[in-house]
Every structure is written in C-alpha cells, then in structure tokens.
Design brief:
about 40% helix, Rossmann fold, 7-stranded parallel β-sheet, 6-stranded parallel β-sheet, alpha/beta, about 375 residues, 13 strands, 16 helices
Length: about 375
Amino acid sequence: MKISFVVSDFSENCLGRVYILAKMLESRFEVEVVGPLFGEKIWLPCDTGEFTYKAVKCDPILPHFLKHIKEMGNLISGDVIYSSKPRFASFGLGILANLGNRRPLLLDIDDWEVGWYLPYRFRKMASLSVKTFFEANGFLSTCVLEKMILLADGKTTASKFLQNRFGGEYIPHARDTEFLDPSKFDGKKLKRELGLSKEKVIMFLGSPKPHKGIGDVFKALKLLNKNNVKLIIIGAINGNCLKEEIPSEIAPSVVIKGMIPFFNIPEYLAFADLVVLPQNSAPSNYAQVPAKLFDAMAMGRPIVSTNMSDMPDILRDCGFIAEPGSPQSLAEKIDYILTHPEEASEAGQRAREKCIREYSFTVVGRRLAEYIEQIVQ
C-alpha cells in the first residue's frame, strides 16, 4: 500500500510533522509527499533526501494557487491520501484530488489553526481577514476547512486537546530513540571542542517565536545572574532580529544558531546541561506540544517546560514544570537543575525511558499503522 502525504507548504516547518509521520510508516508502506512550495526551497531540517518530495512551486494567492491544483492532484498517486493540517493547500487539495479517484482520506491535526488568530482584536482581525482572504492557507480558508473536517475518513491528532476537540486517534510526536541515543555521543568531548567545558549550557530548540516563551527565557537568565551560564538557541530564522530582543545584560551569554538538519540534533543535545521549552498562555498553545520536547527526552536531557497543553502529563516524574508567563518560576526551575546535577541527570534518564516506552517510532508507528489499516478496511 502506498500513502501520499499532502503538506500545506514544503518551505515551512509544517513539513516537520509530515516527515516524522512518514519516517514511522516507511518500513511498513511506500510513502511520498506532495504539495506546494510557497518559499524558495524545502524547509532545511527535512531536506534530507530520504523521501520522494513532489513539490510544486507556486504562489500562495488563491487565483495563482488554483492554477496548480490539477498538477498537484495528478501527483498524488497513493492508495491513501494523508493530508497534514486542515488547510486548503493540504486538506483542501486532498478533498479535490479525491473527487475523481475515491481513496481513503486521512487528516492529521497538529495545531489548532484557528486558535492562532484568537489573540487578535476585532479591528486587527478584520484587516487580517481582508489581507489573507485570497491566500491558500489564510485565515478565512482555514476557518472553512476546519468546518469540513468531517469529510475525512480518519483523523490523527498531536495532542489530547486536539483529540478532545476534533476526535480521532492520538498520535503524539514520536522519535527514533535508536538514533537519538545519548550513549552514542560524547557530550563532554563536544563541550570541550566548543570551548564550553566550564559553562552550564541551556539549550532552546525550535523557532524562537514569541508564543514559544523565548522572552521569558531571556528574563529568567537575567534573574539568575550567573556568569557561567550559556544559552544556545538553535532554529532561529532571523538571528539579527532576535538579537534586538535580548537584554544587554545577558547578550554575551547568548549564542544564536540557525536551523539545522534533523540528523544533527543529537550532536547538539549531547552537550546540553538542560533544555528549556516554555510555552506562554496563548490560546493556540493549549493545543500545541513542541516536537523538540521528544528530541530532548530521547537524548536524556533534563527538561524545563511550562504548565500548558500535554506538557505536565508528558513530563510527569521525568521533567520540571514552570508556570507560563512567569520568568521567576522559570528561573527557579533552571536554578534547581543547575544546582542539583545528580537529580537532574536521573530525571533525564527517566525521560529517555519514558520516550522509549511511549513516544518511540516503534510504539507510536505501530499504533499509527494499525489505525490506517483499520480505516482502509
């Protein structure tokens, strides 16, 4: 059986979830990924050459996008269509491609797409709606597609919030725990090579956007006021823009790196003393679980997150939870980890064991494959 994943934009981080789903299924099914490329190139972390990417370069404005619908539909050759996100450029494309050749249509929901717009006030929402009215993945088209979720033959969700809201099978972000194995990397050696032997390294993985709580991390470091602490941010798209947000008092202690391929992640995590992945209390964050959380768990790192979405359950007995929007709470958790290294190390080991037990490719991949086979029957 062949599965055609449909991504809403090859050039954005939405490809990350598709990549992980495809990795879990590649040993059981033939897989391909189809969809539009609205940017200049494939999103770097997933540009690994492992899968057949059928990307069609096109403009996100609907009149231009619609010209490529037939072309992209003809590229969908699978026995099953698996669209990522309830967006027109993915789920809408899947629905249209199914009109002439009926196949099981699955939908993966890893974010509450409409929730991203809830913080906007009415006036800004109105202007935003006008601006994005003609965009394939814009606000209005996404609202329409969310109402059409019932057309999917099956649904998978990345968080319990999303499952409760939309139904379907809970398929958390999973990781290859054989590849992400701390025993395969010498963290202390890597630390020495980077000149960080005497530093305590706090690592932030992912896009450092406001809703990710990066501002609270900066404030927490300022409160800590420790000279031997280094914050390394991995995944910044515009490092110069981010630098403007860093308080001058901690600027020398912050290192900003751009995006890296997925297969380089364990090398960096291996020398991190802790990983900080806070989420603020934006409506969309009640539904979101950072995928990088599972990288850190697989690599046995001590983790600090916040009391949002599924994080308290995922990190129960194996991580540290701060209050969202509270730099003071975040600083206290970070300080506790840095001053209790043995306890932090034990928590990291428990996190890895839990990741193997509940969030590994083997465990989650088997459940996903069984769900797809059940839908297809």
